[in-house]
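Forwarding the complex inputs:
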Amino acid sequence: MTHITVTVDGVGYSDHVEPRLLLVHYLREVLGKTGTPVGCDTSNCGACTVLMDGKSVKSCAVLAVQADGSDITTIEGLSNGELTPVQRAFHEEHALQCGYCTPGMIMAATDLLRDNPHPTEEEIRDGLEGNLCRCTGYENIVRAVKRAAEAGVTS
Amino acid sequence: MTATTEAPAAELGRARLRKEDAKLITGQTRWTDNIRQPGMLQIAFLRSPFAHAKIKNVDVSGALRQPGVVAAFSGADFAAEQGSLPCAWPVTPDIVIPPHPPMAVDEVRYVGEAVAVVVARDNYEAADALAAIEVDYEPLPPVLDMRTALDPDSPKVHEAGNKSYEWVFANGDVEAAFRDAPVVLERTYRQQRLIPCAMEPRAVVVSWVGEEVTVWSATQIPHVLRFALSAFFGIPEQDIRVIAPDVGGGFGSKLQVTAEEVLAVLTSRKVGKPVRWTETRSEGNMTVHHGRDQWQRIRIAADRDGRIRALDVDLLADMGAYLMLVTPGIPLLGAFMFPAIYKMDAYSFRCTGVFTTKMPTDAYRGAGRPEATFAIERIMDELAVELGIEPMEIRERNWIKHEEFPYTTIAGLTYDSGNYEAATAKAKELFDYDGLRREQAERNARGDKIRLGIGISTFTEMCGLAPSRVLGSLSYGAGGWEHASIRMLPTGKVEVVTGSSAHGQGHETAWSQIVADQLGVPFEDIRVLHGDTQVSPKGMDTYGSRSLAVGGMALVGACDKVIDKAKVIAAAMLEASVDDLEWSPGRFSVRGDPEAGKTIQEIALATFAAHGLPDGVEPSLDSDHTYDPENFSFPHGTHLCATEVDTETNLSRSGPTSRSTTSVSWSTR
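Prediction (whole assembly, two chains):
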């Protein structure tokens, strides 16, 4: 067992974990943060995307021990009571149906807009390439990201 | 409480923001894998690496020595209680339905079939324990190609052989039509096998308390699952509660009673603890039922002017290794759709269901009907080429004209309505069909390296499954009705209970809109409850494009009953005769005196108080309604697509403008 210290959605945790424990399982099974879902075996679908020190990572492809000392933001901690522009835009543009991919999409889009606050459609599609959606056909997701960009994501 | 509320503008057709989204965009969703129970253990399955093998021995003792492992069982441990997974659609009287034990005991017949289960403290320990189980297999020859599976010297999937059934339909003099027609074409098309792949992996959580069991499952069919667990696995129905919490997509793949659901229930009972199972994606790719997998031989007989005389379809359909919930019926849903939107004099159809050593096939997106659309539309294009008739023109010459509805097709369905001319005209206009055809001709004339391909598909589908009588005539094991109930709360708010079980469709929003219009209550005042057999005890669930067409009508019927009950109470409140009351959504008023009236909210509160109700009037506005459709619905559409093709590399790409794909779908009733 390895000792890690990690901040998740603003709360500090100190735990002993198996070196093989994936970050997503640490979040879900140890911390009970089930807002981050698992959609594939590893790194295909992006549903489990979270922010690690501000950068999007697929939490199924990061070991919990690699997150030692880092600051993690999940979908549950993204907003402080009020929806972020990305969350609001997903709602307003009908960018989700079943919603299983949505946490990952929102986290990936948040990171994308921090890197590039005014992306073209092609840059949005390129930026979200690692996130799969089975319901929407992506059109409304792209529109949502554009709308969030117009609203200003860093608010 | 709401004293008076203005009747809202019509909700249906209004672009509402979804009620479902708030939890989905903030990570507060209750997926099955998020459910936690005190003392819950994790289960994992060991699966066959062979497509076909005898199981000579399963030794789970190694697993039991692993840390954190509570129990491990093989098929033999379940043999006395596991029964057989149900097939609800015995399509012919002599169909072969082989026993389908949830866990293989003596023989495995597809890669991924479960042969053992471990129960452990967590996923990691469970995975470790699986590696410690030893299985002694004796490989048998697999049966991989349905086209050779019926050869006498083919290895057998089951003792009874590799043929499950042959189902035939014929109407009109097919033989004469093919003998006399000036043009006959025959083609063979392949419908590939596919993996449905909903984003949310399947998951099940089971908790027994005494004799009562609660099953959370990522399923499309909580009500059917409850019935099946009772009817086929011996658990009294009143002791079973099935909950489909938030479900992340289905696409037909969660229209199933799965081995894993049954084994989770049995395993939990054996160990006396709640258990959870969630598949890995790789596991799901192997063992969620697959879709399609047919060979379609199709013949068409026509006149030189393109008029269709007859159609003959001969299908081979790969059942996989077993018949699951509706496996054999899926290709037959296509039987009625091959004639599509076209008129003809004769039609024959045959389908042979074939066993192979592969994962069973079952419902997937459209289930049987898109397969038919693909084949008929392909051969219409081939016929157009053969006869030198413009492909849209040949369709138009054959389709049912809008003034001919209702129209009974050669396959025996009565299409209630349709307007193929209008949908097609709109699609052609949006697409600039004539312009693209000109461009195509010019490129061809110039001998351009980059040519233009234009694809057409018209379609209709039998949707809104289904009239119970029709299902009965097709030997289906259940009805096609749907149930709804309305609970009028004292404050005038409304709880809507539906037997439909949404898994991404947005029922909570759409159902609120329907009820808002019917009862004249605000959209925001409505809560839709579904997916829990204790909350919504009656239902036929969500699949087959049925929720709105059938479940929506059940809602309307339930609302009508609320209004009928409210009328009697309103009359008493207004000291008026029932006959003098007029209903406008949300309010009863007295004819001739529109100021005198009571809102539905006022009536709800008065009913709750029940102080001044007339003799014999029940103090309740609540209602139930079960709706059984008289017919299917027949939505239709025309889809157009233009693609540039590099004639040297064969690479294709969609055209540079948004006009390159256009679809216009109409639902006329």
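The CA atoms of residues 185 and 300 of chain B lie 5 Å apart.
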